[in-house]
Amino acid sequence: MEVLTISSEESTNGDCPAEKKLNLVDENGSTDTSIHENLKDLSNFAVKEILQNNTNRKVTCLRGSFSSHPGEAVVVLEKPAFSEEILKDYFKGKDNLTKSFHNDIYGDYRYNPSSDLNAVKATVIHPATEKTIQRYTSQKHYMIEESPKIYKDIILPNLAEEEDHLQWVYNILEHKSEADKIVVEDTDPNDGFVMVPDLKWSGELDTLYLLAIVNKKNIKSLRDLTSEHLPLLKNIKEKGSVSGFSFSFSPHQKY
């Protein structure tokens, strides 16, 4: 099954309503005896390894385990983008400001705003398989020209193995998980899809990040798309753009 990612440029500035923020779910979509049912803090998470620390994106990925649950886990911590709606709140309180140095008209300070303005987005994946751990581990990237033969002999067999990890997709389609996060839904078996915010989304409209998950289960990758899928793609484009109005932004606004 192909999961189409839509990164929207069509948004207004401002906060996302609290109900639009994502639940944390494991990659298998498990809800029975899931760690996410009662996870209130990360105090019982023991860090085993720093998988990667991206200073440009301000994201760090940690491998470890929870003392309350067996198995390994991956915790991703990310500094969210500034929201213009609450920028003025940074200048209301007497928060701690420590000077590092100053030179002529320039001053460098360490600013510690109140905790509600300094939140960090946390994504918890548990249980984390070895493949999941590798996915979040820093590694070299290579540009490969994919020929039909490479796709058939290498890519396609790997996609077949990945089907065991698509339960989270089926949970969304079947309304077993994230049903309250659905932005658009078309139940047509051929041209229908479900659109939900991606787990990577910070919750801010100016960084809106959506997934379009198609109802057809025989589309494994973009390679499978043919002219017969044009009605499906046009349907996603049309209804996905119109859905922007439910977030109170113009579907044609550019940044």
Any overview of this molecule?
The model is unreliable at 1-32 and 248-255 (pLDDT under 50). It is globular, with a radius of gyration of 21 Å. It has 4 helices and 10 strands. By secondary structure, the chain is an alpha+beta fold. It has 3 domains: 1-20 and 148-255, HIT family, subunit A; 23-80 and 120-139, 2-Layer Sandwich (Phosphorylase Kinase, domain 1), CATH 3.30.200; 87-118, no CATH class. Helix content is 16%, strand content 25%. The protein starts with a strand and ends in a 13-residue tail after the last helix. Strand 3 (59-66) and strand 4 form a beta hairpin. The strands form 3 sheets. The protein has a 4-stranded antiparallel sheet, with helices on both faces. It has helices spanning 130-135, 148-162, 167-173, 230-242; strands spanning 3-7, 45-54, 59-66, 72-78, 96-103, 106-112, 121-125, 184-186, 193-197, 209-214.
